Amino acid sequence: MTDILQKFVFEDAYVRGELVDLSDTWKQVQARRAYPRAVKTVLGEMLSAAALLSANLKFNGAIVMQIHGDGPVRLLVVECDSELNLRATAKLAENADIADDATLPQLVNAHGHGRFVITLDPKDKLPGQQAYQGVVPLDGDSVATVIENYMLRSEQLDTKLWLAADDTVSRGLLLQKLPHDGRLAPSGANPDLEAWDRTVMLASTLKREELLATDIETLMRRLFWEETIRVFDPRHPHFQCNCTREKVGNMLKMLGREEIDSALAELGRLAIDCDFCGQHYEFDAVDCAQLFAGDTPVETMMPAGPAKH
Ligand SMILES: [Zn+2]
Q: pTM for the whole thing?
């Protein structure tokens, strides 16, 4: 089964919607690492949320959604680019003991220091252009509420999310109120100003179990059968990690020569596994020397010893 993201608008209303259905992408994330059940639920919900939010991005680049935790879960990261390539990972505290039914606050906000971070990272940055980053306290008991609160406060966008994930599927529904200034709808009709309250009320009948058990086409019919909806061409999210040897090398370089040399002296070679996809990278002394080669005159890089031709 292919993963699907379906965008739609309510006709003559300033409300847009999206439904996403991730099974293959979600399976691929889970295949790379085993997570406790409660972590799976939260990470899976973030995966759908990231796909839903990035489908509305107006730039070519990636959205990175992070929750920095102060409980048994230290970090949850989901990335989604404009092509709907997704990757996700979680870092747990050492010896974390996590109950199956642990809630989001229990996982990441045990001491009230949890942070929610959204980064918008354009792919082809203009000179001097930085990624945009919004950091807010973790405000909400669920992934959906945290994002809704963020969108309202930081983006001034009324957004509602329904998210659910289990072992096999991650699904989500987004409704967003579009800004308008009382003008006529695009069709020339009077805008349907009650549509936001009405569609949110309809969607609020959706229970977690129903969201997990029902494909998005059926969900759309079931929830909004009385509404006039215009659907767009479906898009297909998938798992993809964009890690490369070069990026890992740059990360090592940022640690600094001294740090790397001392690690090499101790370990002989550096082994790094990508947190997202598990790809294994190794850097030996020669590889590491090459990383810093540009910074130092080449002569000083040459080993002393017998002359070369
Ligand atoms: Zn990777």
A: 0.88
